[in-house]
Design brief:
Elements (H helix, E strand, L loop, with lengths): L1 E5 L3 H14 L4 E6 L2 H11 L3 E5 L1 E2 L2 E2 H7 L6 E6 L4 H8 L3 E4 L4 H16 L5 H11 L7 E5 L4 E5 L3 E7 L2 E6 L4 E4 L3 H8 L4 E5 L2 E4 L3 E5 L5 E4 L4 E3 L5 H13 L1
Parallel strand pairs: 1-2, 1-3, 3-6, 6-7
Antiparallel strand pairs: 4-5, 8-9, 10-11, 10-14, 11-12, 13-14, 15-16, 16-17
Helix pairs in contact: 2-3, 4-6
Length: about 250
């Protein structure tokens, strides 16, 4: 596996290389790059399988680099110390990232996933979706990548009625009636979607407030959804959900 490391701090580059060689001794590190021009040149020259890419590169960003490339044939693992908009976009696109300071176990997991995708000659539609999401201003145009066992589906947030936990998986129920089983936990999507019009009335449920039909008072409180689903509201969440819904009603 041919790898390029892109980071604007020498000490972080050296630390990343040291950990990489420890957890994956057979890796081939082609070169390092510290900014967008040198990273672009290295990618074109070496045609890597995988690029470790820091989000912040001096006065530019990883996304500036990606937008300059004519084609993206390699896998990417983003490296960041920040939980910000860029990281949120990466999560939406179902791409891999590791947080600094780098944890060996997390790095090893990310490497194994990248290795599998490389061996399967996976397409990079997820990267294209990332770049689209970064340039989207309107929330109703955002799409989320949903990795299933057979494929990765790209779905507009406005299509998602609700999500429900299913052991270690999550079921996405769309307004078309389709149900998509995704190989990630509900908690990951709670962290990702709560700032985008989704509410968590219950530990096992996440709902799009645009599809809430009414509040039903029986059994301590239920949300009746447009698809006729009756979603329980946990006692601890009743006040916050009621406050949010009353604000919606006022507007």
């Amino acid at each position: 596996m041919r790898v390029i490391l892109v980071h604007d701090e020498k000490s972080n580059l050296e630390n990343l290389e040291r950990i990489l060689r420890k957890v994956y001794p057979n890796i081939t590190i082609c070169t390092h790059a510290t900014n967008v021009p040198s990273a672009r040149e290295a990618i074109i020259q070496y045609n890597p399988d995988l690029v470790f890419l820091d989000i912040h590169l001096q006065h530019d960003s990883a996304f500036d680099l990606l937008e300059t490339l004519p084609e993206i044939k390699f896998e990417i693992i983003f490296v960041t110390a920040y939980s910000n908009y860029g990281l949120q976009a990466i999560k939406f696109a179902a791409l891999d990232y590791i947080l600094k300071p780098i944890d060996e176990l997390e790095l090893s997991k990310a490497l194994e996933k990248a290795k599998t995708r490389i061996e399967q000659k996976s397409t990079n539609e997820r990267l294209q979706q990332l770049l689209e999401n970064l340039n989207i201003v309107e929330q109703n145009a955002l799409r989320i990548a949903l990795p299933t066992f057979e494929e990765t589906r790209f779905v507009h947030l406005t299509e998602v009625v609700r999500c429900e936990a299913d052991a270690g998986y999550t079921r996405f129920i769309l307004n078309s009636g389709e149900c998509i089983l995704v190989s990630r936990t509900l908690k990951e999507y709670v962290d990702m979607l709560q700032g985008y019009g989704f509410l968590r009335p219950h530990q096992s449920h996440l709902v799009n407030k645009a599809f809430i039909k009414s509040w039903v008072r029986e059994d301590g409180g239920l949300l009746l959804m447009n698809d006729s689903a009756r979603i329980p509201i946990s006692k601890s969440n009743r006040k916050s959900i009621k406050d949010i819904l009353s604000k919606i009603h006022k507007t």
